[in-house]
Amino acid sequence: SPDLAERIANLAGANYQETRVRAVNGVSLKVAEGEVLGLVGESGCGKSTLGRMVVGVETPSGGTLSWRGVALEQMTTQQRRAWELEVQMIFQDPFASLNPRMRVEQIVGEAAVIHGLIRRSERRDYVADLLTRVGLNADVMSRYPHQFSGGQRQRVGIARALALKPRLIVCDEAISALDVSIQAQVLNLFEDLRQEFGFAYLFISHDLGAVEHIADRVAIMYLGRLVEIGTADEVFENPRHPYTRALLAEAPRLDRRGHSFTPIKGEIPSPLNPPPGCAFHPRCPLATAACKTGVPDLREGRDGRRTACILEQEEVA
Ligand code: SF4
Ligand code: MG
Predict the structure, then answer these.
(1) What are phi and psi of 231, to 5 degrees?
(2) pTM for the whole thing?
(3) Which of 18, 77, 161, 282 has a CA positioned 20 to 30 A from the CA of residue 198?
(4) Of all atoms in ligand 1, which is nearest to the CA of residue 281?
(5) Is residue 246, in this structure, part of any structural domain at all?
(6) Residue 277, by phi and psi: left (phi above 0), alpha (psi -120 to 50) or beta?
(7) Which key words are in the record (predicted)?
(8) Is any atom of ligand 1 closer than 6 Å to the C-beta of 286?
């Protein structure tokens, strides 16, 4: 629908240079209103960089970021302000992202006051309501971050994001640092909040189980490039890219069809010096000589599946 098309965050062809490393190269992603897009890959693949670019914490040296159909450079002051509020981030380490000298009431509610979403006199009630929605007691608002457990701190971080009425929340490894027993609770909270508020998530994680649980669509990233994107069912039930298959081989519980894919071999190469051709070729069980020269683009096959693998593209050609 036209409505959906307008409400898209699209990061196309972004080249972010960090100590002269191209962490993200030619990646194009769209997030639709209310959807959960999982972004998966090993650490160092560039997925965090991509997430930070979507929120504006890092600036791409090229490419465009659009929000509601308007590119960042084209935005009016008002549109830019809307984007800043509507796209929020939840970090891996809630402790590092919460000011240790502020009480929870201020941490969660102050930005909403500053941006004029609420009056200062309303802050207390506003924060009380948000804390309840994330499963905390309203009376914790007078406490400081160090007085909470990791799971509680992450709930405070979630309340802080909610306070700005986001339409897209970027979660960067948002449950990875939590105790395993707490992870499922926080993941369920993410689901409940999405049901309640209807916002979208860009859910960045190396945890395939968590992604399978929450995502509608899944994008797989390897050394700064997208290698496969599809619905969660497509990607988990019938992965096409050899890298996706290798990731699933390491999480056999998630392999619904009981494939026997070859687990991934070797270490992830340095992004400083990525292998030529298909960057996955040194680790790929199907690599041929052709894989060492051509860089496969992410392309749509006849069946609509999108992968960046020479073999897949030959099959449909
Ligand atoms: Fe493997 Fe070649 Fe496909 Fe790359 S292009 S994933 S090396 S088969
Ligand atoms: Mg990371």
Answers:
(1) -70, 160
(2) 0.88
(3) 77
(4) 7
(5) yes
(6) left
(7) ATP-binding, Nucleotide-binding, Transport
(8) yes
